[in-house]
Amino acid sequence: MTDIKSLTLTELQKEMEDLGEKKYRAKQLYGWMHEKLVDDFDQMTNLPKELIAKLKETCELVRLVPVKVQVSKQDGTAKFLFQLSDGNVIESVLMRYHHGNSVCISSQVGCRMGCRFCASTLGGLTRGLTASEMLDQIYQIQKWSKERVHNVVVMGTGEPLDNYEALLRFLTLLTDEGGLHISQRNITVSTCGIVPKIKELAEEKLQITLALSLHAPTQEKRKSLMPIAGKYDLSEVMEACRYYFNKTGRRITFEYSLVGGVNDTREDAASLIRLLKPLNCHVNLIPVNPIKEREYVESNHEAVINFKKSLEKSGINATIRRELGRDINGACGQLRKSYMDREEER
Question: Which residues of the chain have pLDDT under 70?
Answer without folding.
Answer: 290-295, 323-346
